[in-house]
Specification:
single chain; three-stranded antiparallel beta sheet; nine-stranded mixed beta sheet; 295 residues; 8 helices
């Protein structure tokens, strides 16, 4: 019987160690190391290439021989999202979206997926049932025959379905609920998040399919999981707002294909998220009429 291989991972930054240490050498945080099983030992390694059914030979190429292509984007019907992303969704990009529970992340990207009726969209949910998602979709009142649901947490099963459906946009809600059968640890652990995100990254780059990963955040407002997750993706978005008010802000924290100084403003209504194209209108309506020193 083979010995089970384990390692210790920092739950803050993902640093790996063969033994437990009190202070992380990478991020200097204390008592953040947890022990996880590296592999089950009896499974054949599988990844996106296995499900794709082919393996491409790697070969170095001179930079001068690479043909430069114009950056083509998938323009959505949401002007706020287009501006935040730098002009639209870049094919093959992987976008990480963070936000507090109940702030409206799932509603916002369910709405975006339903609005893109020209392409095949796959919405993967590990948190809600098909019936729950259908109830939210009915409130949005958007019809789309090319929108597909998949309620699954196993990444192996997800890629089998992706291979059959061949979607042009994938939305994952949330990355903390997805797990690989090849890693003997629970969903949401450092190793599960890192490996599952890496599989989606390989899929996005090899098939030129954009992927949105919705993620949880910690008590201090940072995205849950190892810090390497934010380095792996192309864009990091933060969805913010106060639960007691209807307005939400979509902020860019990282963007390899555009500016990080743009904001998207939304108003949460009974029919979903409404774009606020004129933020001044909100500020003016909330200002008191009788103010000293104002004309």
């Amino acid at each position: 019987m083979s010995k089970i291989k384990t390692a210790f991972f920092c739950s803050n930054c993902g640093y790996e160690s063969t033994k437990w240490v009190g202070k992380c050498p990478s991020c200097s945080q204390w008592n953040t190391f947890v022990e996880e099983v590296l592999d089950k030992g009896n499974n054949k390694e599988q990844n996106w290439k296995e499900f794709k059914g082919e393996k491409r030979a790697t070969k170095a190429i001179a930079l001068q021989d690479v043909t430069a292509l114009e950056e083509k984007r998938m323009v959505t019907k949401d002007g706020e999202l287009n501006r935040v992303l730098g002009g639209g969704i870049v094919p093959g990009s992987i976008v990480l979206v963070g936000g507090e529970p109940g702030i409206g992340k799932s509603t916002l990207f369910l709405q975006h997926g339903l609005m893109m009726n020209e392409i095949v969209v796959l919405y993967i949910s590990g948190e809600e049932s098909e019936q729950q998602i259908k109830m939210r979709a009915d409130r949005l009142k958007i019809a789309n025959d090319n929108f597909y649901l998949l309620t699954e947490t196993s990444i192996q099963s997800i890629f089998q379905e992706i291979k059959k459906l061949q979607p042009q946009l994938v939305i994952v809600d949330s990355i903390q609920t997805i797990q690989s059968n090849l890693i003997d640890s629970s969903a949401g652990s450092v190793s599960q998040i890192r490996e599952c995100a890496a599989e989606f990254q390989r899929f996005a780059k090899e098939t030129n399919t954009p992927v949105f990963l919705i993620g949880h955040i910690t008590k201090d407002g940072s995205i849950a999981g190892p810090k390497i997750l934010e380095h792996m993706v192309d864009t990091v978005l933060q969805f913010e707002g106060d639960r007691h008010y209807a307005y939400r802000i979509l902020r860019t924290l990282k963007n390899r294909f555009g500016s990080t100084s743009e904001l998207g403003i939304y108003e949460m209504t009974g029919d979903g998220m409404r774009e606020v194209s004129n933020p001044s209108e909100i500020l003016i309506t909330q200002r008191e009429e009788q103010l000293s020193g104002s004309a």
